[in-house]
Amino acid sequence: MTLLRFSPDALHASRFALSPLAETLSELTRLRQSLDRRATDPRTEEFGRWLDSDAFAGGLVRLVTATKFLPDFVAVPPGKGLNNRLRDELAAMRAIGDGQARETLAEAQRFAWGSDGLAWADVDGITGRAAEFFARCWARFVEPDWQRRRAILERDIRHRAGVIAVSGWRHALDGMAPDVQWVGHDAIQFSTQTYADRHIGSDGLVFVPHAGLSGRWTCESPSRIAFVYPAKGALASHSPEHGGVARLLGHGRVRILTEVRTPATPSQLAAVLGVSLGTVSAHLAALREAGVVTTRRSGRAVYYELTSAGEELARLVTTAE
């Protein structure tokens, strides 16, 4: 197994962060998977035409979505906090020279299972070209949906921060990613495969959620390490509506019911679901009256969460055929 080992002061210094760059990489991975499934939606088709017309972009995407070792200039660790800017992350990407870029590309190629080699990278200014590509992908495929994605990511962070306050870091990892768990008192199991352990120093570990349904990776620099993981509740934004119980409840209430499996405020739900606050409040009032959701206050915010009856109902509407 591969471990993230904490020094005595590391856990106290660890924080959560948002990363537009990590979110863009997550979306590129989703789009590439859609291409592999031969999906025919307009976004996927546009992405496919772009990769076909740009050898550098096509080669980079094929490599980073089919390797166990991300190139360093793609996996740039963000700063701590919720206000990291893509332009700052891309500046850090551009600061990596061609020599280092080629070394890390060769390492990524060594661990790749679906790449076509590195002929596409035989150019000057590798990281500048990569930064330009990521900037365009952000603007086209991520930024228009950033408000909804950010609501999902912030909700995950607030949920885990609340768990930490009550139960400590050990329980904050629950549901973070498959096979991720504490080992002993000072290490997190990152992978069941055997790679070199990472040692987390006094700067701590930066935990970064992304809004994709799967995928986890580390971002490393000489002084910082970040762990990127799928946000809790990302799957709920694609929740199914089928079966008699779901049809009885209605589309809006089913979406809210599946979303509040992770506690959320009405404003967070409105942002995630792309509906008005009034619509959300009306559905929440009906669900609360039915006894399937309840509220709890955290500071000035009021969070809605499932009751035991609500958990059973959510299970029914998401598993019924």
String of helices and strands:
EHEHHHHHHHHEEEEEEHHHHEEH
Major sheet characteristics: 4 strands, mixed
Mean pLDDT: 88
Class from secondary-structure proportions: alpha/beta
Strand order of the largest sheet: 3-4-1-5
The amount of helix comes to 40-55%
Describe this structure in words.
The protein has 321 residues and is of the alpha/beta class. The protein folds into three domains: 2-16 and 148-230, no CATH class; 20-146; 239-319, Winged helix-like DNA-binding domain superfamily/Winged helix DNA-binding domain (Arc Repressor Mutant, subunit A). Helices cover 49% and strands 14% of the residues. Strand 7 and strand 8 (225-230) form a beta hairpin. Helix 2 (20-36) crosses helix 7, helix 5 (86-94) packs antiparallel against helix 7 and helix 11 packs across helix 13. Mean pLDDT is 88; it is low at 235-242.
Secondary structure layout:
Elements: E1 2-6, H1 10-13, E2 15-16, H2 20-36, H3 42-53, H4 55-64, H5 86-94, H6 98-110, H7 126-142, H8 146-167, H9 169-172, E3 181-183, E4 187-191, E5 198-200, E6 205-210, E7 217-220, E8 225-230, H10 244-249, H11 251-259, H12 266-273, H13 277-289, E9 293-298, E10 301-306, H14 308-319
Parallel strand pairs: 1-5, 2-6, 6-8
Antiparallel strand pairs: 1-4, 3-4, 7-8, 9-10
Helix pairs in contact: 2-3, 2-7, 3-4, 5-7, 8-12, 11-13, 12-13
Search tags:
321 residues; alpha/beta; Arc Repressor Mutant, subunit A; 3 domains; 4-stranded mixed sheet; 14 helices
Concise summary:
The protein has 321 residues and is an alpha/beta fold. Helices cover 49% and strands 14% of the residues.
